[in-house]
Structure formats: structure tokens, C-alpha cells
What we know:
Blueprint: H1 2-21, H2 25-59, H3 70-82, H4 90-108, H5 111-125, H6 129-147, H7 163-197, H8 205-214, H9 216-223, H10 231-240, H11 250-256, H12 261-274, H13 284-299, H14 303-309, H15 315-331, H16 335-348, E1 356-359, H17 369-373, H18 376-380, E2 384-386, E3 388-389, H19 394-400, E4 409-410, E5 416-417, E6 420-426, E7 430-438, H20 442-446, E8 455-460, E9 467-472, E10 480-481, E11 505-511, E12 514-522, E13 536-543, E14 549-550, E15 564-568, H21 573-594, H22 614-632, H23 641-656, H24 658-675
Parallel strand pairs: 1-15
Antiparallel strand pairs: 2-6, 3-14, 4-5, 6-7, 7-12, 8-9, 8-13, 9-10, 11-12, 13-14, 13-15
Helix pairs in contact: 2-3, 3-4, 4-5, 4-6, 5-6, 7-8, 11-12, 12-13, 13-14, 15-16, 21-23, 22-23, 22-24
Amino acid sequence: MKHLKVFVFCLASCVIAGAAVAATPEEKAAKEAARAAEKARNEKFNALKKACEELVRKDFKGGFANYWHDSIDAARAKYEAALKDADFTVQQKVELYARIAQCRLEATRDVAGAMKDFDAALALAGSDEKAKAAAEANKAKIVSLIDGSFFAPKPDKARKPDPVVEKIETLFKAGGLAKVKAELPQFLAAEQQRVDADKKSRERPYRAAWGYFTDWRRRNERSGIMKQSGARAFVLGLMEQAPETQRPNAAEFFVFAANESALAVKYAAQVLELAKEPKNRVKPATVREADFLLKMSNAKGDVGKVIAAFESTNKVEWAENLGKAARALLKDGDEAAARKVWARREQIAPPTEQPVLDVPYWENGPHDIRGIVESDFYKQAKKGYLNRKYGDNLKFLIETDSATLGREMTTDKGEKFRPTELFAFWDRYGVKILLRSFVDNMESVKAGFGGPGGYETYLATGIDDPYHCIMFDPKEGGEADDGFITQYDNLTGYRQVSREDGTLIFDNLYFDDGAATLITIPWRAVFNATPWKHPAWYFEAIHWAHGGLSWGGSKSVHHRSSFGKLRFTGGDAKSYTAVKRVLLPVVKAKFDASCSARSGGETERWQDPELGDQEFYLAEVKPLVERIKPMMDLVKADMSDEDVVKAWDAAGEDALNIDYLVSLKRAAWLDAKRVK
């Protein structure tokens, strides 16, 4: 009974205490209001960040130089204005200061200004420990990025150093490979004696040394021992003296010596013996390498013996080995023998011919996909087909001769499909490239389930020109990536086709049986590669459907030597003049902008007595301007064909390149004035 009374008393006490702390309706309402206010504040803060991040992205170009920062400055201004917003907490304002500093650094590399922003954040944090810690962390991260310590390799976790590794590195540091050769064998022998005497020890000194020498990270980053001449032979000899239980097998020896045939041949036969027992688990690639090396060694450079050594009923294997043999002979300096072996290989696997597609002139042709596809011109035109397996598919080439497959191909399951069509034409406005794929399940695709498969394309406007990489999704509304251009000095001012400036126009359209994509490149982007200057462009398209199919036969992405040829046809004086007529207004606008004081043009600014260089202007820039200007004065809406040809031929390309030409002249001028 006594215990029952105690229990009842405790229960009553808990009920009374609970009643004492229960929230009143007013308190509950206050808490709900506080939570709603916090949620609204956070939503407002996140919306601000999102808007500013979108502004920053307009100017931010990753690792590439960018001189325009208007949008970044606008984002910084929005952040600065938000500092005055009473809704935001101290911690949120600390984050705002960090973003302000980042904008300042990205726009103008103003390190001093950024540090002031971080100091202001620390001052604002005051005694708020959480906000202060965030402000200090923000500043520390930016400082580490500026001084480079952020990218420094992190120290390895502390662990007990291996005595063998320490000894090797100490010896090499003291006297190079010679010191290692002289003292390491005795050290390993002594270590082995110690280990043998200590029955409980699990150390394996010779294996530790082998691990060190075969670990590329240690070999290249720490000591560099294996870069020394004779290092491989020394290591192999050392390990041959190791106890049986620590000695590498023939396959390990062979792989280690693979780049030095004289050493590798020694172990090749042992590898083949080792591979006869499945339990040894020798990799098939190692077996193939050993077999190849033995055959090359036995042939001793005799072309007849080399060819005979690799003869096989398996044509793919035969062709692969002959190609490898030719490369090995070439590496050894025997070009004549290499050519003979390669010629035999081509009898087994004839080289794939570069595809060529005629690109006709189409006067007043349509500019939209449907208009092109439904026209008689398109229906009657020759097409290219993406019917070559992507990758190093020697087996596919030998067994199917994909170059002659025509329009019909099969999937891995044997189902027939039509390969993607390639069609291109040119007119006065530019070059149009159309890719049309055929998809069986278009109803599902239109409903949003799946897609036609993405494309990776490459375009070089001349045999020696850099190429543009353009990747895109052929879905309706799909995105295109301008990629990049493998650029160098080619007198085009380093121009790149881009959707942003309208020099790459991209459109997709669905049909009942597939999808089509039209790529348009206006002449103003490629004015140095017009049909009368470059009779052909070079192009490759890879459609990542059905395992990857290409037009040129790419063995890998960016495989420059596999690009097919787009050959311009139908060009004559009339069509060339039509192109020049479209280009000239662009030329004149470019020239006028360069000479304009209002826009701070490249040619005009050199006249400025303070910001320019009047001596340079008079000597170099003014003569260039005066040579081009009379031709630009001819450019009018009603100019004759004669004036079109005269203006373009005399000054068209120079006017479009004027800023670039001035920069070249400036470099030569400074070289003459300051260096010589």
C-alpha cells in the first residue's frame, strides 16, 4: 500500500508539472508565427541567391579568360542591397558578404576589396559564435584558394613507415641508383634473416621492395628511381634472388619488363607455360603480349618470318597482330619492313575510304526542317549515312564491310533499322547540315519516354583548320552544347561558332518516323572558309544510338583523321557574289564599330592622346583604315554586283579581321620599339 501511495504521488506530480509547462494558445500562435516568418525569410533569401547566381552565370566562363563582368557586378549590387534588409539574420548576412567578396574576385580580381568584405562579415558577427565561425571559415577558404594551399596534396594518414621503403629512399637520396644497387641487396638479405629468426613476424622484405618499385605513384612522385637507366634490369635481377615465397611469378616479371623487349622476352615463354594451368589465373592480355613478343623475337626482323608468324584463320586476330608488328618494326627504325607488313595487313583488312558528300548550292532554299525534308530537292539529293560502327571495330569492318551496307542495318538482336541520314547544302546565307534519324517507337518518344539518342559532331572548315565540337540532344526543345574549338592562329580572330552570338543556329523537329536536327552556320562565322576559298569542309557525326554509329568511322571521339569530306558543288560567279552581298553589311558594321569613338573601337582608340599611342596610330593603324574605308563606302543597299565583288575582294576579310590585324601590328610595333 505504501508503494502504491508513492506511485500515485509521483504520477500526480508529473501531471501537475506537465500542466505547468503546457503552452497557452497565445504562445502556440506566437511559435507558429515565428516558424512562418523564418520560412518566409529563408525562401526570400534563397530566391535572392538563385537570381544572383543566374546573373553570375551569364559572365562566368569557367577556366577561360573573361573581360565582361556587368552581370557579376549586378549580382554584387543585389547582394549589397540585401545587407540592409532587416529580415535577414546575422548568419545570412555573413553569407552575403562572402558572396560579395566572390563576385569582386571573379569580376576584377580585387583581393584587397574581398578581404575587406570578409572583415566586415567578422565585425557584423560580433559575439554570435556560430556566425563568427562561418565568417572565419569563409575567409580561410578564399585565402587558401588565392595562395594555392587549397589545392596542395593532403598529407597521408600517419602510419608506421616500412623499413624497406625507408631504406630504398634513403639510399637513393644519398647516392642515386648506384647507391641502391650497392647496398640494397645486402640490406634485404639481412632483413630476411631477421624475419626468419622472428617466427612470429609476417614481414616480407623482398615483396615490400617489389611493391615499391612497381608502384607508379612512389616511383614517379617520390624517388624517381625507375626513371634511371638500368633500373628495371637491376630490380628483376634482385627479385630473382628472392626466396621462392616472395618472388613474383613469370607473369609479374613479364609485365614489369614489357616496355623493354630484351628483358621481357626472357619471361615470355615462362608466361605461356604458366598460363596452361587455369589456377595461375594469368590474364589473357598478358598471354597475348607474351606470345606476340616471342614471335617477333624469333622472326628477328625478317619480314617473311614476321608475316608467317601471325598467319591465322581468324582474320581479325591476324590483322591486329600484323598492325602491331608493323608498329613495332617502325619503332625499331625499320620503316621498309614496317611498310611491307602493313601492306599485307591491308590485304586482309582493306582501309576504309573517307566518305565524301556533295554539298550543293540551293538558291532560295527553305530555312526550316519541314520545308527542307518535304522538298523535291531533298528527296532527290544524295545522302550520307551514319552506318559505321563507332570504336576500333576491326572485327565489324572485316566481317561486315560496313562501308557498303547501304541504308539497312541490324541491331545486336538482328532487328533491321535505317541508319541516320546526313544531308547538307549551302546558300547565300550559310551552310545547313541536316541529320535525320529513324525511330520505331516515336509515339513513346513524343510522349516523353526515351529519346532518339544524342549526337557528337565535329566540323573543320579546311583540311588544316581547327575543328569545332558540337554536341546536341535531338529532342524537340533539346539543348545543344557549343563545345569548344581546337583553335590556333588562323587569321579569324579566334572565332568560334556559338548559339549565343547567332553563329550557330540549331533546331529540332519530330516526325512520325523519327527526328531531324538542322545545324545552320552563317558565313559571317566562317568567312575565311567560303566555297571559293575552301572547296571542302571536314565533318564527323556520331549518333549515340545502336551502340554508336558514325559517318566517318571514328575509332574514338575527336578522331580527326576519320572526318568525312563535305564537298561544295554548284558554285559559280553568281552564287559567290550572292554570298558576298550578304556578308558586306556585316563587314561594314564591324569596320564602323572599330572606327567609332562612341563604342571605343579598336582602331579609333589608338588616336587618344592619353589612352592610345598616336605615333603607332599614324604609322600603322591609319594606313590600314584608309586602305579599307573607300571599299566600305561602296557598301549600300542598292550596290551593283561589280561593287559587291570589288569591295569584298579588296577589303572584306581585312575589315572583318581589323581588330585582330591591329593587334598583330601592335605586337610587331612593340617588338621593334622595346625589344630590338
